Amino acid sequence: MLTEQATANTADREALESLIGPERAARLREAADSIKERLGAGGTLWHVNSTGAGGGVAEMLHTVIPLYRSLGVPARWAVIGGDDRFFSITKRLYGALYGSIGDGGPLGDAERTDYLANLTTVADAFRELLGPDDIVILHDFQTTGLIDLLGKDVAAMYWRCHVGVDEQTEASTLGWDFLTPLLDHADGLIFSVDWHVPPRLRERPVTILPPFVAPFIPKNRDLAPDVIATALARSGLSTGPAPTEPTTVDLGGRPVHLNHAATVVSVGPPEPGQPIAAQISRWDRLKDMHGVLAAFTTFVPEGYLALVGPDPASIPDDIEQGVWFQRCVTDWQALPPDLRARVALICLPMADLSENAVLVNAIQRAATTVTQKSLVEGFGLTVAEAMLKSRVVVASAVGGIRAQITHGDTGLLVTDPTDLATFGSLVTTALADTPENHTMGVRARRHILDNFLPDREVVTTAQMITT
Questions:
Q1: Strand boundaries in 54-96, DSSP class E
Q2: In this structure, how many other beta carbons lie within 10 angstroms of the beta carbon of residue 286?
Q3: Chain Cα centroid distance, residue 357
Q4: Model pTM score
Q5: How many whole angstroms separate alpha carbon 37 and alpha carbon 169?
Q6: Other residues' Cβ atoms within 10 Å of the Cβ of residue 83
Q7: Which has the closest alpha carbon to 227: 73, 359, 416, 412?
Q8: Is residue 23 very low, low, confident or very high in pLDDT (cuts 50, 70, 90)?
Q9: Please, what sign has the CA dihedral across residues 457, 458, 459, 463?
Q10: Contacts of 235 (CB under 8 A, 6+ apart)
Q11: pLDDT at 60
């Protein structure tokens, strides 16, 4: 029910400090010193979530925990578990906080009782690892009940929410009805953007802390041209022959094995030089992959579309991904031949997450533009990842995407995600090889480097726990 998550023993701290420059590096070290002073001689900074791999939270923790340690901050990471009933309830909460009714099931007293029963077992195990000077940061709705269960055992307890809606709905209200009583004794709350803080929590201590991009992990680090070519061949986006033998690529001394090919639904790869629009998301109703397909094939006269997601067969506990992928396949099959030839549906292998990350990285770099036409969004870290690679991103003006893109300056935003014509027009603009698009891509990268790197996580955390 509780495991301590292992992370890399070293951090890319020197590379990060070189990237951010001496002034930010000095602030980073000062922030670490203030955290150490707050913890005292025996305290530890804990992060707690519900998965050790996959998803933006785990990805960030795999970067920031080693970074903390390299700065001399005692930092550890615990992952909670649960039974099917617990995760059924938390998945319902996930949908609710995104404004959706999810499976339509209740979130009442019975569900709260079962939810807390699971977390009581977690707390009993966690208590053995905690000390009175420890500070704990809990991530998302799977962990919220630990505030009351463990708050008296540690120096401070904070809760971080990575999801939300721009305007509260009936479903999100039910979700917050469930969670709000469990937040009463938190020392502070953390949200990615200000507009995701529900009105009922605005009088409480709130810190705004967006997620960060980890620039040196396989998904974001620079790739050599031959690595990109190999990855594209395995993803069905290259006119060359697909590799049949495993390939090992060197990412700055980190070997990554490319052993698996993607599952590709297409007539063929893009023509040489053909501009590519790519959306890399879960096969999820809220990511609206089928809407991207409809907009592209109706309103974008040229170019090639790559819709890229995980292999649904590798995620047996999320049957909805298979449903929405099949929706895209059905829509693709119904296209006339000339349009069908301009679209690929790509399911990336998930057996090795580093391999998956290299494939994603290569596809983003091969794309002329990257889209994120989400109907709702917590933050949308894939947007920042593409911007880091100097891509012009065409995205919905929802959630945390609005904090990343200024329309016409660092990317292009469609105000209404259901407006397919406008979205298609913006994609057409972004696919053009123009000086304006090149300059916009450069500004996009600069914006991410200035605002969404790991040092911000450490500095803001220090300010929060020492105030």
A1: 75-80
A2: 18
A3: 12
A4: 0.94
A5: 42
A6: 12
A7: 359
A8: very high
A9: positive
A10: 261, 262, 264, 308, 346, 348, 359, 362, 363
A11: 95
Q: Can you read off the two tokens belonging to residue 285?
A: 């109703």
Specify the pLDDT at position 318: 67
The string of DSSP letters for 417-445 reads TT-HHHHHHHHHHHHS--HHHHHHHHHHH
Q: And the tokens for 66?
A: 């080693």
pLDDT band at 442 (very low <50, low <70, confident <90, very high): very high
Instruction: Report in angstroms the alpha-carbon separations of 371 from 53, 281, 285, 364, 384.
Output: 24, 10, 15, 10, 11
With beta carbons less than 8 A apart as the criterion, state whether 114 and 86 touch: yes
pLDDT digits (tens, 9 = 90+) for 87-143: 999 999 999 999 987 778 999 999 999 999 999 999 999 999 999 999 999 999 999
Rounded to the nearest 10 degrees, what angle do helices 420-431 and 289-299 cross at? Answer: 70
Q: Rounded to whole angstroms, what are the CA distances from 36 to 62, 72, 131, 233?
A: 20, 8, 15, 48
Contacts of 464 (CB under 8 A, 6+ apart): 158, 188, 190, 207, 209
- Dihedral sign, Cα of residue 14, residue 62, residue 382, residue 239: positive
What percent of the chain clears pLDDT 70, i.e. is strictly above it?
99
Q: Give the integer Cα–Cα distance in Å for 166 and 168.
A: 7
Nearest to 347 by CA among 359, 334, 362, 333: 359
- Joined tokens for residue 46: 């804990």
Torsion from C-alpha of 30, 35, 41, 42, nearest 10 degrees: -150
Q: Which amino acid is at 132?
A: P
Other beta carbons within 10 Å of 201: 18
Give the pLDDT of residue 317: 58
Interval 186-208: pLDDT, tens: 999 999 999 999 999 999 999 99
Alpha-carbon torsion (442, 444, 450, 456), positive or negative: negative
Phi and psi for 456 in degrees, rounded to 5?
-65, -35
Strand ranges in 349-433 using DSSP code E only, listed in sequence order: 369-372, 392-396, 412-414
Which amino acid is present at 163?
V
Q: Record the tokens describing residue 441, joined without a space.
A: 């891509």
Amino acid at 413: L
Are the beta carbons of 321 and 283 closer than 8 angstroms? Answer: yes
pLDDT of res. 137: 98
Cβ proximity of 289 and 374 under 8 Å:
no
Query: Which helix or strand (DSSP H or E) is residue 49 part of?
Result: strand 45-49
Rounded CA gap, 154 and 41, in Å?
14
Polymer length of the chain: 467
